[in-house]
Amino acid sequence: MVRIFSKIIEYIRILRLPIVLAALFVIQNQAFIALLHIVPQLYLRASVVAFSLGMFLYGPAVFLASRLRYWYLLCISVVVSAIFISQYLYYSYFNGFMQVAALKYANQTSEITGAIGTLLSPVLLIFVMQLLLILGIVIHSYTKRYVAVSISRGKKYMLVLIIIGITASGYGYLIYTENRDWGHLERLYSRPYDLDSLVAKIGIINYFIEDGVRLVLKKKGVTPEEKTFALAWKQETLQRPYPKQYFGIARNRNLIFIQLESFENAVIGKKIGDQEITPNLNKLTHEGLYFSRYFAHINQGNTADAEFITLNSLYAPPGGVAFIEYANNHYAALPALLTQYGYKAYAFHGDVLSFWNRANMYPKLGYQEWFTKYDFTPSRPIGFQDLGDEDFFLQSAEKIKSFHQPFMATLITLTSHVPFVIPSDLQKIIIPKDAPFDQLQKDYIQSVHYVDTSIGTFIEKMKEMKIYNKSLIVIFGDHGSYSSISKALKTGENLPDSLRNHQIPLIVLAPGTKISGEITNPASHIDLYPTVANLLGVTPPQGIFGKDILNTREGAVIKRKIGTGAVDAILDNHVAYTGSSDNIFEHGTCEEMPSKKALSVETCRTLYDQQTSNAHASDIVIRGDLIPLLQKIPAPQASLAGENKKNSESF
């Protein structure tokens, strides 16, 4: 026993400097999370994981000669300190975490140098503690050696096992706690939108390393054949100029996007007894254009995918989330386009800017200013993130009041986010006990009614501020609610099952103009950009893949399976195709719409080829960052600006 104890003491003596450095690393990791107020502290989990990574980083020093040992420790410490400090400053300024891919833009930070200077603080010394320690040891080592114990081959093997064991035990504890808390480890990495929570669990250094590994392993670029296909497809599908209905009818107006969380079309026009679920939206469907066959085709990114598709007219990529995986691509987004016409673009969201990596994505989309969680003050906790939509809309309106016109403002609601629970005094719909709804659906109905009331308040506020009549207001859902509310309300029964829960509302208001009525042409998020551009009288760029809904004779929608990109369903005005589990076209089904009469699968062949080719070309463009190349494709002859002047109205 004495011999074993003496061996343990000997190994501790050999590893003492890496152990001390790993302990300092734990302190730095916890300080990083605490100083930035990321999430409630996960002390034990974060500390165990941080210590294990610290031993993995600093432990190998014991196998090196004294001089090399200190150089190694200095190099590792410089890298660790640089990551801590750069991420601290980046988060303090952008409210999000810097990605490895963003390092290639480091030479473009001159415009925020002054702002970074204001963020420098003595607290940053915490992140260089290990450097100071090592420098002190180096100075001291001139007179005294750091470790006098020689390391035999056997000791080296044992030390390797100890370092590996400590590292593995830390990550093993992480796996254990994730399985204990959530039932599976995948939850840790399948929630890419919640980067704060991820960093709180694994630490900022782990996050940065893993982001770098993903960047290295991710399929880069595209093959020459893929590039040729995408460019040829885009060239082939460029719409030739023809007289356009409603072109420029809202020229120079403000553009207000209202993106509704988990808002399904199933509730529009529906009643519980004599109570309208959405009385304000019902009214607006008659005052503007109501697109009753409008669909979401998100992938893993949910709300962020809805933003990405709507603002870029590109499909959500099948692998990963565009807001994270392709945040450093070049885009020709709607906000950026409108800034060329004298607009300033603003984004409003009641969450932190790191959520879905918006901190990195919003500037790439052309937003010049954004208002997030810390720019709003909840009067009382309501729903997801405690910020009720009534407070959100009223406080957003006060900010909008001071904007120079014309402007673009995107407002993203929160209250109708799962689990749809709001305070009882705000639950205004009386639902009979024998109504055919489960509790989740009842909560959903109450939450969307509250959101509808908040929208009504916002619209009245816009009228009061004399902004309503000078604006083009676009209201749309981001994705389905996953509550099966359409089935409970018996709506969408003539749709393919995979599309039924993804039918969302789209309402376009241009007060004072003649545009109103119901549009039944099938469309989706990808088509909103060119439609809005037409109404505003601006020329959309070549890099978009949607169609102007108001000037498309045959609308179509494709929904792809989440994660794989395989076809789930395709719909146009006449037929619907439903994909098979093996993803072979011939094994799918084709039905006549709306009768759902079975047809030969070959009847859907042309529709299938067109829609899958369009989506595939979009995927290539995103993966290969080809938007700049698409911009060079010659535009079709004739100028859009001179088209159909009789439809162009000023206000």
Give structural notes:
With 651 residues, the protein is α/β, with parallel strands linked by helices. The chain has 2 domains: 2-217, no CATH class; 224-647, Alkaline Phosphatase, subunit A (3-Layer(aba) Sandwich). The chain contains 22 helices and 16 strands. It has helices spanning 2-35, 43-58, 66-94, 113-119, 129-141, 153-182, 186-189, 195-202, 204-217, 224-237, 279-287, 303-312, 322-325, 334-339, 358-365, 389-400, 439-464, 485-488, 497-500, 528-536, 605-624, 627-630, and strands spanning 254-260, 271-272, 275-276, 289-295, 344-349, 369-371, 407-412, 471-477, 503-509, 517-519, 523-524, 556-560, 567-572, 575-578, 589-592, 598-599. The strands form 3 sheets. Strands 1, 4, 5, 6, 7, 8, 9, 10 and 11 form a 9-stranded mixed β-sheet that branches. A 5-stranded antiparallel β-sheet has the order 12-13-14-15-16, with helices on one face. α10 (224-237) packs across α21. The longest helix has 34 residues, at 2-35. The protein is globular, with a radius of gyration of 28 Å. It starts with a helix and ends in a 21-residue tail after the last helix.
Describe this protein with a few key phrases.
disordered C terminus, Alkaline Phosphatase, subunit A, 2 domains, 9-stranded mixed beta sheet, 651 residues
Number of domains: 2
Largest sheet: 9 strands, mixed
Shape: globular
CATH superfamily of the largest domain: Alkaline Phosphatase, subunit A
Strand content: 5-15%
Q: What is the helix content?
A: 40-55%
CATH architecture of the largest domain: 3-Layer(aba) Sandwich
Uncertain spans? 107-115, 638-651
**Mean pLDDT rating:** 85
Say what the CATH topology of the largest domain is: Alkaline Phosphatase, subunit A
- Output the number of helix runs: 22
**Class derived from helix and strand content:** alpha/beta
| Radius of gyration, in angstroms, nearest whole number | 28 Å
Task: Tell me the distance between the termini.
Answer: 92 Å
CATH class of the largest domain: Alpha Beta
Number of strands: 16
